[in-house]
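pasting input
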Amino acid sequence: MTIISAEVPASGRARRASGLRSEATILQAAERVFAERGFKGASMSEIAAAAHMPKPNLHYYFGTKEALYRAVLTDILETWLGEADAFVPDGDPAQALGSYVRAKMRWSRERPHASRVFANEVLHGALFIGPYLSDDLRRRVEQKGKVIEGWIRGGRMARVDPRALFFMLWAMTQTWADFAVQVHAVLGVADLSEAAYDAITEEVVAFALRGCGLDADGRPPAT
Amino acid sequence: MTIISAEVPASGRARRASGLRSEATILQAAERVFAERGFKGASMSEIAAAAHMPKPNLHYYFGTKEALYRAVLTDILETWLGEADAFVPDGDPAQALGSYVRAKMRWSRERPHASRVFANEVLHGALFIGPYLSDDLRRRVEQKGKVIEGWIRGGRMARVDPRALFFMLWAMTQTWADFAVQVHAVLGVADLSEAAYDAITEEVVAFALRGCGLDADGRPPAT
DNA sequence: GTCTATACCAGGATAGAC
DNA sequence: GTCTATCCTGGTATAGAC
């Protein structure tokens, strides 16, 4: 992740433990507030309150609101593709796809704020992470797409455009974080239990595998 | 759509053609700006500029920024489920699901701004349309879910939780509007041609049908 | 109904004490 | 490194002429 450079705090030198802890606290609070309000909607005051410290401290550590936002995004992007590396050419398609979907579902569950910040950023034009999407992400999708094309040529899964497949998988998994409010409203619940979320995860996995022409055991279809 | 009441312009009485035209112009401009910037990020000045008229006119017609935003949302919600009524119990599952997905894909293509405003609203907690989601939408999903459950009981499609299915279908279709920037970045194109979008639409339809255990001709699988 | 000019306030950023 | 007090821009909303 070289496109977005995290702000180096004021001094430009390594700081002591208290500073690092403050910084981490701010980042965490900022992620939550940016997720709830968007970039414009979030105020430094609210982030400061969420981080239990006065406003100027935020400026001391990150300079500007925009720099803080960039730091949050950097933090998010560094993990966004972390679980994505299960696509090895020799691997079993059903196994690889299944664990990819499960990893993405877990990410939505464990870092819903991060998912929403990312969604908000892309939704409004990816002004900050645009270069990252067209360079780094594009390259990765291209690579993994080749693996999938290999599987298709080998008759190991249905013919699915690899890029379209990725967009659909991302959408199907991230929607549980990004649109959680809608999910809760339609289901008539205040929250999803771990058990309920696990059940949903298996629904998504099964749906995605069938969508790729694979049954749960990974057997390719007659087609 | 009774939950959100569109603002009745200043006089409270029907206005003449020029007023109606201005109002429609403002709504259209507002939808676009709200889509690009979010509620907070959008400014009345920018909407006014987009509508080619001075700022106070917006307040004349809609009172406040929030009222204008509500009017835009009402407009969007009225069409959001319009195409959703292909789910008739007697219908063919593959045919019903296919035309539903196609309708949603067309909506994403033709009203991307509307889709983004909606996404942004839900993403940030559905503060304005929350009641609509838990009343009207919930009821509709419940109804259509019964139809799907009937199909499953009749062995006409795979066992898929109907609610989960809807969330996935919405996600898979709306992502092409909401995350268009990401799609373009990863594909390395500035825009999608009609032909390219049609091809993607068929990818999504095929994937969704297989996901439901249906092939393109609507034959249920052995399962 | 349409527009110019302006009141008013929220919020980002900084000065400067400790 | 931490915090109080304050500056100042930008943005909603309105007054009031036409």
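fyi Chain B has a mean pLDDT of 90.
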